[in-house]
Design goal:
Number of strands: 12
CATH architecture of the largest domain: 2-Layer Sandwich
Shape: rod-shaped
Number of helices: 11
Strand order of the largest sheet: 2-1-5-4-3
Radius of gyration: 50 Å
Structural class: alpha+beta
Helix content: 55-70%
Oligomer: single chain
Strand content: 15-25%
């Protein structure tokens, strides 16, 4: 919009300049040409009066005045008698007949003539003035002055160049002022654009509208802020509901599971025991689902990230899950730097991400396999990778595995929220999670988090 406003300002300015400067240039060019002709015509009249007596008495013409004038001005002076034969010519050529020249013919008829025409002989434009040499009402001859017209042409060209320079200065000034005005006019719109961009990214913080903004823009901005506030309230209410519902459901589900486990130990019939065991498994899956919903609601609140030591957290979680891995005859292969690896993450986020990812890896890994865990610091991003030797995922499955409630195996007891929770926690920490295939089968989960810049002197 700024560009369109500036272009419109420039277009209007150029139209005004054309309407003003073109007629002005033509007018001043004509005035300059007329003034130059008038000056030469005045000189021609003075010289003609000097030769009046000479032609009247039939005496030889004195060439000195004409030569001095020609030397001083660069003009050519020609004096002809009534028949058009030259009596004096500052150009050293034999006497010639100039009676066929229109300006000489007019002067011999007692009429002055002046103008600029193209000389085919000289191959350039010349200014000519022809005046009659007369006394007592009798024409005795004519005097013609010719001057190279480049002088007046250069004056006119300088005039046009001056007008062009003025136009350029005006255009540049209008462009600068127009850009400043356009920026001030579009600033409220840019602020609204930035606000809507933040809204699209999930930041529903309202933005104050400039008081100097147009009333229409202020009204639009207030409407957008009102909409953002209402959306924020709705989303917060949804999160609160999920969090509260999940929290309230955990206690009765736990109590119900404990009662069924106590009941299972008292039953003797195999069929009854199997039914109770299946019920306990379903309650366990429901409990995991409730816990997952609670974690997901907390992850979406996006608290402030802090500097944490990824190496220490990864080592701690691997140590915690080692007992479970040993029961399944699976071992961990941990590779991490010896020094601290600081990243920016929400406190507790890396622990929850690793718990979900390691749990999934242990679920799909066969006995006697190895789960590789790596911490790789890099410029800008630090990578935490977990690689299993399970069956892996197809491309279609990988594209959906990070979505909520997706389960690769419908018979699995999982809630389908583990990777979705991990993804939300990574995004809240300004990072991301990707799924990659292993070279020899299995799946690699890559957590990318911003590398924290250590304080000076740390």
């Amino acid at each position: 919009m700024t560009r369109r406003l500036v272009v419109s300002y420039l277009a209007i300015t150029m139209v005004v300049l054309l309407l003003l400067e073109v007629p002005l240039g033509i007018f001043y060019g004509q005035r300059e040409e007329e003034r130059f002709i008038a000056d030469v015509e005045r000189d021609a009249v003075v010289l003609a009066s000097f030769y009046e007596d000479t032609l009247d008495q039939g005496e030889p013409a004195d060439t000195l005045p004409a030569d001095e004038y020609a030397t001083r001005t660069g003009a050519r002076v020609i004096l002809v008698d009534t028949s058009g034969i030259s009596l004096l010519d500052t150009d050293p050529v034999p006497a010639r007949d100039f009676s066929t020249r229109p300006e000489v013919e007019s002067a011999l008829a007692g009429v002055r003539s002046a103008g600029i025409r193209r000389s085919e002989t000289l191959d350039r434009d010349i200014l000519y003035v022809a005046v009659p040499v007369a006394s007592g009402g009798t024409v005795h001859g004519a005097l013609r002055l010719t001057v190279d017209a480049h002088e007046v042409t250069e004056r006119i060209q300088r005039l046009w160049l001056g007008l062009l320079a003025v136009a350029l200065v005006v255009v540049v000034a209008v462009a600068a002022v127009g850009f400043a005005i356009a920026r001030s006019v579009t600033r409220p719109l840019r602020e609204l654009q930035e606000s809507t961009r933040r809204f699209a990214e999930g930041d529903l913080t309202t933005t104050p509208i400039s008081e100097d903004a147009p009333s229409e823009v202020r009204s639009l901005g207030n409407s957008i802020n009102t909409m953002a506030a209402q959306l924020d309230e709705l989303i917060e209410a949804q999160r609160s509901f999920v969090s509260d519902a999940s929290h309230q459901l955990r206690t009765p589900l736990t109590a119900l599971r404990l009662r069924l486990e106590n009941l299972e130990s008292r039953l003797t019939k195999d069929v009854d025991v199997s039914e109770v065991s299946a019920t306990i498994d379903e309650i366990e899956r429901l409990s995991q689902l409730v816990n997952g919903l609670l974690q997901l609601a907390r992850a979406e609140r996006t608290p402030t990230a802090a500097i944490v030591d990824a190496r220490m957290i990864v080592a701690d979680r691997v140590d915690t899950w080692t007992a479970v891995a040993d029961e399944q005859q699976i071992c961990f292969d941990l590779s991490a730097p010896e020094l601290s690896t600081n990243v920016l993450a929400i406190p507790g986020a890396i622990e929850q991400m690793l718990d979900n990812i390691l749990d999934n890896a242990l679920t799909v890994s066969p006995p006697h396999s190895t789960i590789g865990v790596r911490v790789t610091p890099a410029v800008g991003q630090t990578l935490i990778t977990v690689s299993d030797q399970g069956p892996g995922l197809s491309d279609q499955a990988k594209s959906r595995a990070l979505q909520r409630f997706w389960r690769g195996d419908t018979s699995s007891r999982g809630s389908g929220l583990g990777l979705a929770i991990a993804t939300k926690l990574a995004e809240a920490s300004d990072g991301y999670i990707t799924l990659e295939d292993n070279e020899h089968g299995g799946l690699t989960v890559v957590i990318s988090l911003p590398t924290a810049v250590s304080p000076a002197g740390a």
